[in-house]
Amino acid sequence: MEAPSSKRFCCSLCVHTVKSIPVIFILCILAWSYYAYVYHLCLSRVTSVELSIPYLLVYHIILVLFLWSYFKTIFTEPSGAPPNFRLPEEVFEEFNRNPIDLSRQSAILRDFAENLPIMTFTNTNDIRFCDKCKIVKPDRSHHCSVCRKCVLKMDHHCPWVNNCVSYSNYKYFILFLAYGLLMCVYVAATTVEYVIKFWDITTDMRIQEGSYKIHIIFLFFIASMFSLSLFSLLAYHIYLVSKNRTTLESFRPPKFLDGSDKNGFNLGCCRNIQEVFGKEVLLWPFPIDTRLGEGVSFPINKTVPEAQSLLFSDVNNQKTSIDFEHYDTSLFTSVLISDDNMSSTDTNAPKYQDLIQIYSYFF
User: Fold this and answer.
1) Of 244, 361, 358, which Cα lies nearest the Cα of 304?
2) Of 2, 130, 195, 300, which has the fewest Cβ atoms less than 10 A away?
3) pLDDT tens digits along 58-102
4) Of 45, 68, 58, 54, which Cα lies nearest the Cα of 183?
5) DSSP character for 315?
6) Could you tell me if 41 and 191 are in contact, meaning their C-beta atoms sit under 8 angstroms apart?
7) What pLDDT digit, counting tens, does each position of 136-172 carry?
8) Model pTM?
9) Element holding 357 (H helix, E strand)
10) Does 269 qualify as catalytic in the annotation?
11) CB atoms within 10 A of CB 104
């Protein structure tokens, strides 16, 4: 017997509210800190207009960038697998007909995934499959039990943004951490002078009464504590970006046919950063979409055996972060980062002259 729709709605609302508690907490802390910094510090204690105006101007610029990045991280929907990764009903029924026959299930998945850009596998070299979503998992994707879907290039589910940090919003998440750290450091640096004066017996501020002292002291210590936590988290994710890894991949390296390789998607520091932030350096500080690719297939390190031996029969129809979709890709066995040039004795060299120029430009 199904529960009434009103009860389901109430349960859903309660669950959504509980999930939003960390976000509400951050927004409350932010609202109080705004009140403490703007009113109690800049408008009440900083008597010099030449000093208070720059304080307020810089603070509001950082605040706008922080909120922009934060809300983009929260409200960007995690990307799911494309429709061609989903098993048709008849194939799924055939797949589940005899659940004990694992070899038969593996053969069905391999037949279905023959034309899909799959380069990572399970520990038993089988196709990665999600029985909840009924899809073949694209490379680097994982099922999120909170979002109830398979998320492309999933990093982790973050309760502080009530969303999955993934291919869709990873840049926004890093900017959220960066601007959060910058704001905390800025607030701590501009309030420390007054905190010291409150404890200095040679100043009049120590004997003055007022709630503003409590607000400014607490503001300094909270900003300092958040600075430490944000710095460690931001440093860790900058490291992951430089290695082109996700948090999940740092604990469980991707499994290729030849074995697990934590550097399987490592293209070099500069290209790893471009995978997340794009090629337009001037747009990196802003939470706008500049990422490369579509989150389904990724270029891999040339040391991975698949980069030298695996050939996809339908690679022409697959877009990656380096796009060859309008060119004959029979020269390549994969989306491969390599510095090798085509031999001058190759009989196909004149035919593929334009393609060679593009290949040389990117690689």
Assistant:
1) 244
2) 2
3) 999 999 999 999 999 999 999 999 999 999 999 998 888 877 888
4) 58
5) G
6) yes
7) 999 999 999 999 999 999 999 999 999 999 999 999 9
8) 0.80
9) helix 353-362
10) no
11) 14
